[in-house]
Design goal:
The chain is α+β, with helices and mostly antiparallel strands. The protein contains seven helices and 16 strands. The strands form three sheets. It has a six-stranded mixed sheet with strand order 2-5-4-3-1-6. It has a six-stranded mixed sheet with strand order 8-9-16-15-11-13, with no helix packed on it. α4 crosses α5, α4 runs antiparallel to α6 and α6 runs antiparallel to α7. The longest helix has 19 residues. The protein is elongated.
Length: 369
């Protein structure tokens, strides 16, 4: 994500805004999130200028006025509707903090001190109440963070960064008992550990079995949480769509199967919901858009050609025989049975028109007998 300028987007830890950060921490890199702010929260007089800038999403602990950096993103669209601006972002990497408590503490102190001396200069930032502004023109903060002591694999680096951030957030009294979740693997077609993401949605293959693995973490062992993967059953067939999170942390697995490919692309969504008796007011559904691509045009036309050839031969054998200058009796019973089988198999791919022709075929066949 490269851009000439950067933006800082701050969310207050106040209902209902706190749940925005929970959602922002759950979705994988490349997904889209939409935020909304009134014009009064922008430092700039022209909010539309933040379009195409890199941004840092941060959470302000209203009680203490501490700013916790969360995740980088790219602002890909912004629209003004009256006095409200809708910001569409594509999320990227989590902010990577030091693994050790002292290292994290030092990073956050330096980050907050820099904000106080620069962006927040002249802005009301009194602990215990909302800050005067929430969206700032800012320098890039990518070089402010890092974890030199990380020794894990590249594949797990993002999950480790997520875990460090959650470790800080669950200590906040406002977030006690709240389940944070993160998609760590999405295994499916071709045994890939993570499925491709295009235009902010998972790109899934038809007629495939998929396994979605989610990491869950909270500050308390109790209460038990129920995490559900809600699916559009016309497109996605659930296999395992509900799990109980028992304890402060776990890895939960969900599974489903995709439908057959269709003439048009199938757009749908998977929705992760969390429910328990604690901090329920902070939860928001986590929506994961998905697309099953349309069937290949070439394959579609092959099926249509096979079906029409079989159907015409069955319905009007004399015409087909005439084309080849052969008597109609050349179409033997064995050939006719084979053509019926081809017509039935390909009809499932051709659609409703095929059913009508098949009915006509069998009704004519019945009259001849």
């Amino acid at each position: 994500m490269k851009s000439a300028s950067s933006t800082l987007i701050v969310f207050e830890l106040l209902p209902p805004y706190g749940k925005e950060v929970v959602t922002g921490m759950a979705v994988p890199d490349g997904f889209y999130l939409r935020f909304r702010f009134k014009k009064k929260w922008f430092v700039t007089d022209d909010p539309l200028k933040i379009l195409n800038t890199e941004a840092l999403i941060a959470l302000r602990i209203t009680r203490t006025a501490e700013i916790i950096p969360i995740r980088f993103c790219q602002i890909i669209d912004i629209k003004d509707v009256g006095n409200i601006f809708y910001i569409l972002v594509q999320v990227g990497a989590f902010v990577e903090l030091h693994s050790g408590d002292e290292g994290q503490k030092e990073q956050l102190i330096l980050f907050n001190r820099d904000l106080t001396d620069t962006l927040f200069s002249g802005i009301d930032n009194t602990p215990g109440r909302g800050m005067g502004k929430l969206i700032f023109n800012a320098p890039s903060y990518r070089n402010h963070f890092g974890n030199p002591s990380y020794i894990g694999t590249i594949e797990n680096k993002s999950v480790a960064a997520w875990g460090s951030l959650v470790g800080i957030l669950i200590k906040q009294e406002e977030l006690q008992g709240l389940d944070f979740i993160c998609i760590i693997e999405f295994e499916g077609a071709g045994s890939k550990k993570n499925q491709p993401i295009q235009n902010g949605a998972f790109f899934l293959a038809p007629e495939q079995h998929y396994v979605l693995r989610v990491m869950q973490r909270r500050s308390r062992i109790e209460p038990v949480s129920e995490i559900t993967l809600k699916l559009d059953t016309a497109v996605l067939t659930p296999i395992l769509d509900k799990q109980l999170a028992v304890g402060a942390y776990d890895i939960l697995e969900f599974s489903f199967r995709t439908c057959k490919s269709q003439i048009a692309s199938q757009k749908t969504a998977m929705i992760l919901t969390v429910s328990n008796t604690g901090a329920a007011q902070m939860y928001a559904p986590i929506i994961l858009p998905a697309v099953i691509p349309r069937r290949s045009r070439l394959i579609q036309w092959i099926f249509i050609l096979l079906f029409l050839t079989s159907a015409i031969t069955l319905i009007m054998p004399s015409i087909v025989a005439g084309i080849f200058h052969e008597p109609p009796e050349i179409i033997s019973e064995q050939v006719r049975n084979l053509l019926i089988l081809v017509a039935i198999v390909t009809s499932q791919e051709v659609g409703a028109l095929a059913s009508l022709i098949l009915n006509k075929t069998f009704s004519l066949g019945g009259l001849k007998q």
